[in-house]
Amino acid sequence: MRVLCSNDDGILARGLDCLERAARPLGEVWTVAPDREQSATSHSLTLHHPLRPVKLGERRWQVDGTPTDCVMLAIEALLPGRPDFVLSGINHGPNMGEDVLYSGTVAAAMEGLALGVPSIAVSFAGRVNHMEDRLLDDHVENLSRLLAHLTALPAFPADTLLNVNIPAIPASEVKGIRLTRLGRRVFSDSLTPMKDPWGREIYWIGGGSVAWSGTEDSDFRAVKDGFISVTPLHLDLTARDRIDDAERWWRPL
Q1: Sign of CA dihedral 223, 226, 228, 230
Q2: Among 31, 132, 139, 193, which is least packed, fewest CB within 10 Å?
Q3: What is the DSSP letter of 157?
């Protein structure tokens, strides 16, 4: 099996190293990742300057572009053949609820799916730092078993990527795995106004507080309860229920 690994935290990220180690038992691992952090780049492509892939090893490349760029370049130019799976992560932080709309980690998996390759995104629902590095390393063995299971499913769901979130607890304390739906996330005070050295107004996006909500089968609740969540996602954003009940709200011209 040929596996492509990518991420949005950059080629030097601790999470990517953990993902590569977890994927090695699956077969031939290739890595094509951004040369710097690309968090929250979503499914963006680099259109205004050429991309320059740099070979770092036999099957390892860095690219001065987005996660989507990396997966496209890997599949269409850098790899000797199409991968059997695209694996993205391990993200330094959760990707649940509306996070998936912004996430470069999920976008890399989405690009794999858009190019016809089954894909899995993996995130760690904590912040990777010196205190939590050990926790992330602790999950490599269990993640390896999970990836082996998912990639061996008799019928990997068509037109679907799997979004995996690992709770920020020791691997020995994980209670199991739940198949989940996306929860809901609400940011408060995420814009911080300030002034630049010349007194002009500027704003930082980020920070503030986050409130999560969701049904019992949501990703947020699963992770909060100590489970790994696996959420199937697809590219079709059509609100099918709204088509089915169009007589209630749609008035033709």
Answers
A1: negative
A2: 193
A3: P
pLDDT digits (tens, 9 = 90+) for 143-193: 999 999 999 998 898 899 999 999 999 999 999 999 999 998 776 667 888
- Looking at residue 197, its amino acid is P
In contact, 146 and 177? CB cutoff 8 Å: yes
Q: Quote the mean pLDDT of the chain.
A: 91
Pairwise CA distance, residues 163 & 102, whole Å: 14
Task: Report the amino acid identity of residue 154.
Answer: P
Q: Of all helices (H) and strands (E), which one includes residue 233?
A: strand 227-233
Query: Where do the domains of the chain lie?
Result: 2-183+215-248
Q: Residue 207 burial by CB count (10 A; 0-12/13-18/19+): exposed, middle or buried?
A: exposed
Q: What number does CATH give the domain 2-183+215-248? A: 3.40.1210.10
Instruction: Please name the helix (run of DSSP H) or strand (run of DSSP E) that holds residue 243, with its range, or none.
Output: helix 240-244
- The H or E element spanning position 185 is strand 184-188
3-class state of residue 211 by DSSP: strand
